[in-house]
Amino acid sequence: MLYGTPPRYEHHSSARGGLALFVRGIGGMGSGQHRPAPRTVGRDRIPRRPRRRAPHEPERTAQFMVRGLAALILLGLVAMTGFFALAGERQPDAEAATDPYQAGLLSSRSVDTAPLTVEEVFPDQHEVRPPAARPYRINLTHTDADCRTATTGDLGGLLIAHGCSQVVRAGLIAPYEGYEVTAGLFNLADAAGAGNVDEQLRQMVETGDGNFATLPAARTDPDALPTSQVGWRARGHYLLYCVITRSDGKLVTSDDPVAVKITGDLVDAYLGTTVLGRRAASA
């Protein structure tokens, strides 16, 4: 048995409840004589404080195993947290070593000194071929040292305030029926200025205070609601953009899947990867 049962001590009592007497035999004694037998009193049962049992060996071993396992799990969590924290700190450094925009090759015009040319941005005079996309037909190309010629409203002044020195752009026919595009780059002084313009552009476009102009310039009622969709992105000290319109004059909505595809083709893939990637490689 795992646990012992302590002995019980009871009173031995007579029928009347008095203490019992033990009578011995009288052989060997004189007649008429008797010796009272010694009275024996049953011992009272004394309550005892139960002893605290020491845990048996199997229990003690199990406790040690559980505690050890908990400690190992805790150490593993601490080590994993430290690993991910260190990896998060190192990841930007690794990206900076491979990303030409973060590595400083295109971070400012003081490093990237050569001006853009139409031949560099649009080497084929007839079409633009974004990676993994159908070609866009070129209608017209344009470059200007005055960045305001490619903008409307307050956007030109914002670009000039951040050192914009030139714009190179083209009017294109998209490989999707009924869509026309103007796409190009603004050459700003540094990446900080391009990022500042990027941050202010959304509110400016939404309020109608400034925007990108189409090529050729659209002849519309200045009080009419805009029907175009614009997309842009800052890359190094350049601001890349496109303006998407429909030849039938219908509204191009922000969730138009064709407009999303055109922006990816021209702003991200062609201007961002092909043109600036080529420039960064030659810097």
TrEMBL record:
Q: What is this protein called?
A: Uncharacterized protein
* Disordered, as annotated region: 29-59
User: What's in the keyword line of the UniProt record?
Assistant: Membrane, Transmembrane, Transmembrane helix
Taxonomically, the superkingdom here is Bacteria
Q: Which residues cross the membrane?
A: 69-88
